[in-house]
Automatic annotation (TrEMBL):
Location(s) in or outside the cell: Cytoplasm
Species per Swiss-Prot/TrEMBL record: Pseudosulfitobacter pseudonitzschiae
Transferase listed as a keyword: yes
The protein, known as: Pyridoxine 5'-phosphate synthase
Entry function: Catalyzes the complicated ring closure reaction between the two acyclic compounds 1-deoxy-D-xylulose-5-phosphate (DXP) and 3-amino-2-oxopropyl phosphate (1-amino-acetone-3-phosphate or AAP) to form pyridoxine 5'-phosphate (PNP) and inorganic phosphate.
SUPFAM superfamilies in alphabetical order: Pyridoxine 5'-phosphate synthase
Catalytic activity: 3-amino-2-oxopropyl phosphate + 1-deoxy-D-xylulose 5-phosphate = pyridoxine 5'-phosphate + phosphate + 2 H2O + H(+)
Length: 249
C-alpha cells in the first residue's frame, strides 16, 4: 500500500498503439500494456482517442473499459463525437484537451477563457453521467479561473515547457516554468480544484514536480513507453513510481 500523501501515477498507453499502427496488425497490444502497467503499480491508465485515430482506436477504448481494474482517464477533444463516445462508456475521468490534426503531440493547454460558455455546456452532460471532468491547461491563472467557473473538478497542468527547457539546457527558463507550475498548483488547489500535471515528464524532471504537495496525480506516457524498449515496461514504471515517492517523502 502506498503511504498517505503519495502521488497517483497515470500511465498513458497511446504510443504503444502508435507503434502498432505504424506496421498494422495487432501488436504491440495497448491492452497488454495496460495490464502490465496495473501490475507495476500504476493508479490509472490514460488513453487519448484522437479524431484522426492516429494511435488509440475505438476498439482499444472498448477493450480498456472491459479489462481495467484501475480507473481510465479518457483524453478527448471537445467535439460532439467524442462527447457521445464518453457518454456511452462513462469512464472514471475525461480530460478535455486541445487537438490539431497537424500537431505531433498536444502542443499546449486548452483555451478555456475564450470558450468558457461553450465548454461549460459541453462538460455538463459528462459530469451528470458521473465522469470526473479534467481540463488540460497551461500554468495560467486566467485559464485556471475559467476552468473553475465552468465546473471542472480537476485541472491538468501542461508541463511540456518546463521539460523542454530542462532537456535543452535552458535552465533559467526551466526554473521559471517550474515556479509557474508550483504557483499555479497552489492557486488551483486554493479554488478547490484537484491538480494533476502531465506532458514530457522523465526521470530527470519528475521529482521537482512530484514534490509539490498540491499535485495529486502525474500522467506520463511517451517517456515510459520509450524507456520500456530498454528496460521493460514494468521496471520502467516501477522506477518512475520510486522517484515520485522519494520526492514526496
Amino acid at each position: 500500500m502506498k503511504p498517505l500523501g503519495s502521488l497517483r501515477l497515470g500511465v498513458n498507453i497511446d504510443h504503444v498503439a502508435t507503434v502498432r499502427n505504424a506496421r498494422g496488425g495487432d501488436t504491440p497490444d495497448p491492452l497488454r500494456a495496460a495490464r502490465i502497467a496495473q501490475e507495476a503499480g500504476c493508479d490509472g491508465i490514460t488513453a487519448h482517442l484522437r479524431e484522426d485515430r492516429r494511435h488509440i482506436s475505438d476498439a482499444d477504448i472498448e477493450g480498456l473499459m472491459e479489462v481495467l481494474t484501475v480507473p481510465l482517464n479518457f483524453e478527448m477533444a471537445a467535439t460532439e463525437e467524442m462527447q457521445q463516445i464518453a457518454l456511452r462508456h462513462r469512464p472514471h475521468a475525461v480530460c478535455i484537451v486541445p487537438e490539431k490534426r497537424e500537431e505531433r503531440t498536444t502542443e499546449g493547454g486548452l483555451e478555456v477563457a475564450r470558450e468558457e460558455n461553450k465548454l461549460a455546456h459541453f462538460i455538463a452532460p459528462l459530469r451528470d453521467a458521473g465522469c470526473r471532468v479534467s481540463i488540460f491547461i497551461g500554468a495560467d491563472q486566467r485559464q485556471i479561473e475559467a476552468a473553475h467557473r465552468i465546473g471542472a473538478q480537476v485541472i491538468e497542468l501542461h508541463s511540456g515547457a518546463y521539460c523542454d527547457a530542462h532537456h535543452e539546457g535552458r535552465f533559467d527558463d526551466r526554473d521559471r516554468e517550474l515556479e509557474a507550475l508550483r504557483e499555479m498548483s497552489t492557486f488551483a488547489h486554493g479554488l478547490g480544484l484537484e491538480v494533476h500535471v502531465g506532458h514530457g515528464l522523465t526521470y530527470d524532471t519528475v521529482q521537482p514536480v512530484a514534490a509539490f504537495p498540491e499535485v495529486m496525480e502525474l500522467n506520463i506516457g511517451h517517456f515510459l513507453i520509450g524507456e520500456a524498449i530498454f528496460r521493460g515496461l514494468q521496471p520502467a514504471i516501477a522506477e518512475m513510481r520510486r522517484l515520485m515517492d522519494e520526492a514526496r517523502g
